[in-house]
Input
Amino acid sequence: MWPEGIHRELAAAGVRIVGYVPDAGHKRLIELCQADRKMRAVVLTTEEEGIGLAAGAWLGGQKSVLLMQSSGVGNIVNVLGMVCECRFPLVTLVTMRGEQGEFNPWQVPMGQAVRPVLEAMGTVVQYVEKEDQVAPVINAAFRLAFSSYASVAVLISQRLIGIKSFQEQAAR
Amino acid sequence: MKRRDVVKKLLANRQDLLVIAGLGSTAWDCTAAGDSPLTFPMWGAMGQAAMMGLGLALAQPKRRVLVITGDGEALMGLGALATIGVQKPANLTVVVIDNERYGETGMQKTHTAHGVDLAGVARACGLKVFDFEDLKSAIHAKPGPNFAVVKVKAEKIPLVLPPREGALLKARFRRALFGAKADAE
Output
């Protein structure tokens, strides 16, 4: 499954710190990172904290990744300015809401704004909607981020996550 | 107490201390105490100083890490205290230099001027709270996460500015920490 594929890429990239605000789409990946003794999963109160965490970790020589839902992108906009100005390498994995088949109308405005908001703040945006694309795109995202001191976000399509209703999400 | 005296005392004989300075007055205070490549002064990202300290402390568990920030900056990132309380980094100390004012924007009163108790918040999040008298030993030797609020006089004093360019501040910090390996990644 694709969360296992992401976890393998994180391990291969040498990720040691995983900042996250939980999302149903990231549930399995968070569990895999929590169970990995080489990784430290750091639960955040808001996605914004994950930017400070990642920047501090890189000052200290460790690679990290930041996991969030699309709504969290709205919470990191100003602090992405630091990532850009300081050229901190950053990989953010965003599980999308408010796009394909969304059932909650409150998710739609931010979901639709994710790409332009990230791009306006200097983040390179990659989008995946097929399972076999996930691992190679994340592999490339890590190489771009840490070889080129870039901020890269990988958006994981709601079609791939496949949640169709609130009841279904709550039952996971 | 006067803020420049407080920060100068905290940074005197700093040994191998790694320092994150929150934006505004505390970054100027740290620069006035003596600019160092192993101090990362923030010019933005308000609210993230403590989280920068957490990331650094987790990445460098054998070094002591000190965050020096202001009350306004700390208030913008209160959730960081909860996150630090969960991670419990033994090598991290967060110090809030509290003048009860937003110093860069016209000295408007912050929440602490109205009685909000940052040390109480930190204690409730599981951080160990120290008085100024015991702070130096806490920074260098006590198992953290440690926290202190140091109340200082609200005063307008001359700016002492560190370099501004973010990429330079990042690169000089990593070079001071890792030598030539910093560029080999």
